[in-house]
Amino acid sequence: MSTQTTPPDAVEPEREPPAERESWWHRFVTGSSAPIGLILAGLIVVFSALEYENFVSVSNARNVTTDAAVLLVLAVGMTYVIITAGIDLSVGSVLVFAGVMAAEVMESVGGNNWGTILAGLGAALASGVAWGVLNGFLIAKAKIPPLIVTLGTLGMALGAALLITGGVDKRDVPFKLVETIGSGRLFDEIPYLVLIAFAVALVGGIVLAATRFGRYTYAIGSNEEGARRAGVAVDRHLIKVYALAGTLSGLAGFLSLARFATTTIGGHSTDNLQAIAAVVIGGTSLFGGVGTILGSVFGVFIPAVLQNGFVIVGLQPFWQQVAVGAVLIIAVYLDQLRRRTAYQR
Amino acid sequence: MVSNGTPLLEARGIVKSFGKVQALRGANFEVRPQEVVALVGDNGAGKSTLVKTLAGVHQADGGEIRFEGEPVAIHSPLDARALGIETVYQDLALAAELDPASNMYLGREIMRPGALGKLGFLDKKAMRRESGAAFKRLGVAIQDVDARVATMSGGQRQGIAVSRAVMWANKVVFMDEPTAALGVVQTRNVLDLIGRVKEHGVSVVLISHNMPEVLEVADRIEVLRLGERVAQFQRGDVTMEDLVGAMTGALQHRERGNGA
């Protein structure tokens, strides 16, 4: 950025040893994610009380987290986007496109080894970056509203995926990918899919809470013009944020491919809405400037736990959709309430 | 007319149009070292346009800007900042969802020492400490430095915006209507703050509609009317009537062609 000018009667910043312990995890742990974490904990307690035997088990926890893993990766990127007061509707389509590209590349490379798999991963990530940069460029430079840009690329990415495959799912996925990342477990217990998703969330959370990249993300969502006048390269940062969301969609596409051993072209039409719902339930404000990755993790698992719990206690699983809808509305209402009280002064 | 030494910042014949509207028609303006100069004028006189031009927000269509006697090009707020010029905008330009320290250092963050800093990690503790020291020095009362700016009063927000400008400016601070939205006590605080900024060796350009306020704090007053400077006054030899007369054109002080 700019050179630091000497403030009037500058006091030499003395580097004292860490006294007050209030650092990056402050934002990560506190903030708007605490109440939603309590709701998630409450749900787990209720389902545990109702069906202890079936609900509280390693295999059930594995089921829930594995089902949620791909969505969690999408939600991390979506959190950044929504904190900038943007939206990304294209994530599900980019996921599909990236999966298709990965499958195509792995097929043409051939073989059943890590080299092939890496080539596929590279293709998926590159596809994600490309769509993300396109989104970001159109939003930041061409000043087209994010809703419209990503609605457009939603159609374009899905259409492109259908054009490439002729509308038929690709199933030629290296078996090694499926048996390792797709369904393998660390120490025979923790699915690699879950580990990867949580690693993404952890890194995403730390970057958001503790780095300049995260700080600018909040600042732009809070006051874009103010950030610009403060010397933040707003356009460039927005492009990076959408590129990040695209990259994570690409990674999610690769993980989905590994898990299902097929491109599942038709299965992701509501991924975008699920990711947005999870992020918003997690306390991220659609108006920008507020949100945490931890909140989004909770927001991903509330629908997942509801779905799983309803099935186990024998309720019609359709109730999950009703419940998630209600939770979403309540979450946004709470955000509105918070803003209203904060801006009254 | 007054003149002593080289002006710190000088605008000569600045022209700026927005479409068909000519906001500045060859405006002159000068700021001297360590002074409070008030820029007054009626609505639409071009005060804000002139300040935004000098702060790098607008680009002048014509004219010259000199800094410490040398012609300079100010194409962006970053250029102005590099010269030691900061601006407190009328809307304050604060990120309401961030805490005061984050706002103070926005765009100029202190990074962690060593490898963590290279990875982009912020030294939040240092920023919080330095911000707290700046607030203290300037007498800005912020009880909770971790609270979001959105939860703070108008006076506190003004205090944060002014402190930010003062912390980074070592030559000139522009303040665009800093008291317009404030109550009596808060206005008092901001006026006192202006005095303290000057004591720190930084010149203040005060844009205000409030004539008693201007007469109280300004060492010099420059009057803008219809995009041109029409009068300059020295503290002490000016009355409210003179100011209003110059602003409305009732008093002709025109200074065609002999800019500073």
Give a written overview of the molecule.
The complex is a heterodimer of chains A (345) and B (260). Chain A is mostly helical and 345 residues long. Helix content of chain A is 72%, strand content 1%. Chain A has one domain (31-338): ABC transporter involved in vitamin B12 uptake, BtuC. A two-stranded antiparallel ribbon of chain A has the order 1-2. In chain A, a hairpin with a 3-residue loop joins strand 1 (185-186) and strand 2. The longest helix of chain A has 27 residues, at 114-140. Chain A is globular, with a radius of gyration of 21 Å. The two termini of chain A are 33 Å apart. Helices cover 33% and strands 24% of the residues of chain B. Chain B is α/β, with parallel strands linked by helices. In chain B, helix 6 packs parallel to helix 7 (184-199). Chain B has helices spanning 47-54, 77-82, 100-104, 114-118, 124-138, 154-168, 184-199, 211-217, 240-248, and strands spanning 9-18, 21-31, 36-40, 62-67, 70-72, 85-88, 172-176, 203-207, 220-225, 228-234. Chain B has two domains: 1-84 and 171-178 and 191-260, Rossmann fold (3-Layer(aba) Sandwich), CATH 3.40.50.300; 93-168, no CATH class. Chain B is globular, with a radius of gyration of 19 Å. A six-stranded mixed sheet of chain B has the order 6-7-8-3-9-10, with helices on both faces. Chain B has a four-stranded antiparallel sheet with strand order 2-1-4-5, with helices on one face. Chain B contains nine helices and ten strands. Chains A and B meet through helix 10, helix 11 and helix 15 of A and helix 2, helix 5 and helix 6 of B.
